[in-house]
Amino acid sequence: MKTRPCERARRLLMVAMLGTLVVPSSARADDWYVSVEGGINTMLTAPQSDQFSLGFTGSARVGLRVADPMSLHLVAGYWNWGARAGAIDPGTGRQTEGAGLSVFGAGLRLAPQLSPGLGRIYADFDAGVGTTGTERVHRLVIGAGVGWNFPIGRVLAIGPVVRYQQMIAVEDEIADARFLTAGLCIEFPGRPEDPPPPPPPPPPP
User: Fold this and answer.
1) What is the per-residue pLDDT across 71-91, written as a single tens digit (0 to 9) for each?
2) Residue 92: per-residue pLDDT
3) What is the DSSP letter of 111?
4) Dihedrals φ, ψ of 193, to 5°?
5) Which band of pLDDT confidence, cut at 50, 70 and 90, is reported for residue 69?
6) pLDDT of residue 203
7) Are the beta carbons of 36 and 60 closer than 8 angstroms?
8) In whole angstroms, what is the distance from residue 55 CA to residue 78 CA?
9) SS3 assignment, position 17
10) What is the three-state SS of 99-110?
11) Which among 163, 174, 175, 167 is positioned nearest to 6, based on CA atoms?
């Protein structure tokens, strides 16, 4: 039996969730992070780019740094797009309406720290199950993003982020939906606490 993309996404999501939730006993509070994002997005390729205009997005991630610079996270997000004036939906032949997409998934982050003052440049690789349309259809959604979080104090970082997402079409659909998002990320904690200072040297004999 051929495995459908959405079934593969559910299996991948379950494995990633287990990997994130099975927390090592040595994990500290500073090993966890929460990030929220907001921005604008646009479709990159036809036929979706012919039907939809700019839209807005919001997402959140909860992650665990498993081994610097690598971390695992869960992600939930929502994207929407307005309809272009006069655009016709090729599937129904009717005028296009606005669209929305909800995604729940998991991913991997690589985030090397440049310095305590410059923060971290990061790259995310995500996959999840997307729900869209009035019929609430489910599709595999994959994505990658890059960003740079600048620390503000010890428990906050902020910076720009750009993401590419792709919703995988099934056999009877025209083409994958590819879209680009640009926005702002706020993360807590932005930077783990500094390690304790080394012990003082022993007194001279």
Assistant:
1) 999 999 999 998 887 777 666
2) 66
3) -
4) -65, 150
5) confident
6) 81
7) yes
8) 10
9) helix
10) EEEEEEEEEEEE
11) 167
Q: What is the DSSP letter of 88?
A: B
**Cis-peptide into 189, omega within 30 deg:** yes
**What is the torsion angle, in degrees rounded to the nearest 10, for the CA atoms of residue 87, residue 92, residue 98 and residue 103?**
-130
Cis-peptide, bond into residue 202, ω within 30° of zero: no
**Distance, first Cα to last Cα, the chain:** 77
Query: Are the beta carbons of 62 and 32 closer than 8 angstroms?
Result: yes
The alpha carbon dihedral of 68, 70, 71, 72 has a sign of negative
CB burial of residue 38 (10 Å; 0-12, 13-18, 19+): middle
pLDDT in tens, 96-154: 777 889 999 999 999 988 887 788 899 999 999 999 876 778 899 999 999 999 988 77
Tokens of 98: 């606005």
Q: How far apart are CA 134 and CA 13, in angstroms?
A: 24
Distance CA 50, CA 39 (A): 21
Q: In the structure encoding, which two tokens stand for residue 68, read together?
A: 């610097």
- Which residues face 55 on adjacent strands? 41
- Give bridge partners of residue 161 from the DSSP assignment: 147, 183
Dist. CA 52–CA 81, nearest whole Å: 6
Neighbour count for residue 37 (Cβ, 10 Å): 21
